[in-house]
Amino acid sequence: MLLALANFLAQFDSGFGVLNYLTLRAVLAMLTALLVSLVFGKLFISKLQQYQIGQVVRTDGPKSHFEKSGTPTMGGIFILFSFISSSLIWGNWYSAYLWIVLATALIFGAIGFVDDYLKIKRKSSAGLSSKQKYLAQSLGAIFIIGWLIFNPQQPASTELLIPFFKDWSIQLGVFGLFALSYFVIVGSSNAVNLTDGLDGLAIMPVILIAGALAIFAYISSNYNFTNYLNMAFIPGSGEMFVICAALIGAGLGFLWFNAYPAEVFMGDVGSLALGAILAIIAIIVRQEILLFIMGGVFVAETLSVVIQVAYYKRTQKRFFMMAPLHHHFEKKGMSEPKIIVRFWMITLILVLISLASIKIR
């Protein structure tokens, strides 16, 4: 919004053209999202308390979680509000990528909102059934992927880039890219959702991964950088640098209230949306494989659930003491803050390994 206004005013004073710099818009987007979160966060939490929109805790979960029952949930609404408002203020409205990401946030946020609403209404940890949620996510993913692939402004490349190798790529074709993108979006959305079980556990990895994707977006949008680093040049992807910055700011603002002991939980409205946002950005900057590596914590949490269910069906016994994985460590007696910080550290290490692929190839 302000970029269009600045470009208009630049006709009269060239100084307004400074907003065309991605770095400046990214910094302003991050600060705006952070400020919006901090200013409206406390008010939003008080409203959640007023309307008794509180967390419903699983009865079979760790005993330490029982005291969290009633803690305000659906905090993902103010994550998305600060993220979307900042993106609209500092984003380039002529970029199709901007609208694709915001549409992703709204669609998957809406699915999560319905799920959270049903949990609160029923006073149960069961919201949408797994089939209902999967169908809604599938329809949302298909719409978003179709928009991205057949975007007339910048049609998506059908090559899958292989990180750490100089000129390696796999030609997927339109159908292959569609299938891969579907798996990445739905999988990432559910993975973040499964990880969101401890105070601050999910939001910090989201912030760290968004920071790495911002770097890839900035490099891939600059022909000189990509030519020097032998990376794919993706025109228009620089807008994701601004979007990632807004996501980081919104995440940090939420973490202010979500850090242990949490004053608010993000709920499915936040976790489903954040996972999908990371996925669509990774697809745009063509770093789907690195998203899998950087999101190793999310992958491990998801695999723990898959293994637990499959093993129980086969043997009628549990492979883990409780799934997802973070609950297994809680059951073994590890304190919540220790689990959270260690998972953060693992994510940071995986992000740094992924960033090393910029030069190691």
SSE topology:
Layout: H1 2-9, H2 22-50, H3 76-90, H4 96-122, H5 130-149, E1 159-161, E2 169-171, H6 173-195, H7 203-220, H8 223-229, H9 239-258, H10 267-284, H11 288-294, H12 296-315, H13 325-331, H14 336-355
Antiparallel strand pairs: 1-2
Helix pairs in contact: 2-3, 2-9, 3-4, 3-9, 3-10, 4-5, 4-10, 5-6, 6-10, 6-12, 7-9, 7-10, 7-14
Short description:
The protein has 14 helices and two strands; from the N terminus they run αααααββααααααααα.
Q: What's the overall geometry? A: globular
- Structural class label: mainly alpha
> How many distinct folded domains?
1
Task: Give a short account of the largest sheet.
Answer: 2 strands, antiparallel
Mean pLDDT: 91
Main β-sheet, spatial strand arrangement? 1-2
The ordered H/E elements are HHHHHEEHHHHHHHHH
Q: How many strands appear in the DSSP assignment?
A: 2
Intertermini distance: 39 Å
Q: What are the segments in which pLDDT stays under 50 over at least 5 consecutive residues? A: none
In helices, the fraction of residues equals 55-70%
Beta-sheet strand percentage? under 5%
What does this structure look like?
Helix content is 66%, strand content 2%. The chain is mainly α and 361 residues long. The chain has one domain (22-358).
Describe this protein with a few key phrases:
14 helices, mainly alpha, 361 residues, 2 strands
